[in-house]
């Protein structure tokens, strides 16, 4: 998907605005699963999640290729919206962000803080996405889809960093929402000529990506019910499926209870707060511990943006409601 040069250039662009994130080996987590566990800490970024990388590269591309465009319009559950609002506002552009009704109050507040014009529409991400794309032409704004080559090129820089910062990895677990994260990891792995097994992770209540890989076509689900809102997607993205379908070793589904257990293990072991999607990779590794015994494995802690009430429920031993 990308050459080494394209990813190196993307890393230079991204690192001009944000520092590389650490990838730590954590013996506390290793002891839980019997594998050598490394964590890529995307929760340590500005906006608290990996999506900020894609905003930088996409807005840079937009300014170079469409210099008269006044701004962007997109849909999100929060992290992608923060990324687009941050990058667009810094470039002097508008950022109109659609979210579904009942979206995370704290993510909504963060998007507004970064300069977003926030609009609520629909009952889930996919309804908000359709509304945003429909409004783009009327408002003369660039419609940022959930998956775009320039978004992925920026997101791929976390895989680029991780593979340079760790010893050779046997496997890496990556959460899947719309697919930019796992596509970026696969792209970085392939550009570097590595043999690392990439394992995608979905929530049981939003398993469209897993079903799509198993059936070899986009499979929409009737609902996407999970407290891991970064993974709550009903309609998988065909362009992403074309990459992770052949590029991932397998897709693992985990329950919300498993995700909650993993988030607690992360907090107890390494004192990092993980949002649902951020804990999903470790949840899948815990579920597959027998398969990974003695191996060197990385998990992507993709973000830490969980609302305070849900974090309190988690740390009290419960599973937050979707």
CATH architecture of the largest domain: 3-Layer(aba) Sandwich
Shape: globular
The residue fraction in helices comes out at 40-55%
What is the beta-strand fraction? Answer: 15-25%
Order of helices and strands: HEHEHEHEHEHEHEHEHHEHHEH
- State the secondary-structure class: alpha/beta
Number of strands: 10
* Alpha-carbon distance between the two ends: 35 Å
Radius of gyration, in Å, reads 18 Å
Mean pLDDT: 97
Please give the count of helices: 13
Biggest sheet features: 6 strands, mixed
What is the CATH first-level class name of the largest domain? Alpha Beta
Strand arrangement across the biggest beta sheet: 1-2-10-7-8-9
CATH fold-level topology of the largest domain: Rossmann fold
How many structural domains are formed by the residues?
Answer: 2
Sequence stretches where pLDDT stays below 50 over 5 or more residues: none
Provide an overview of this structure:
Helices cover 47% and strands 15% of the residues. With 322 residues, the protein is α/β, with parallel strands linked by helices. It has two domains: 4-49 and 149-315, Rossmann fold, CATH 3.40.50; 52-143, Rossmann fold. The strands form two sheets. A six-stranded mixed beta sheet has the order 1-2-10-7-8-9, sandwiched between helices. Helix 5 (105-113) links the parallel strand 4 (94-99) and strand 5. Helix 1 (4-15) crosses helix 7 (149-165). The longest helix is centred in the middle third of the chain and has 17 residues, at 149-165. The two termini are 35 Å apart. The mean pLDDT is 97.
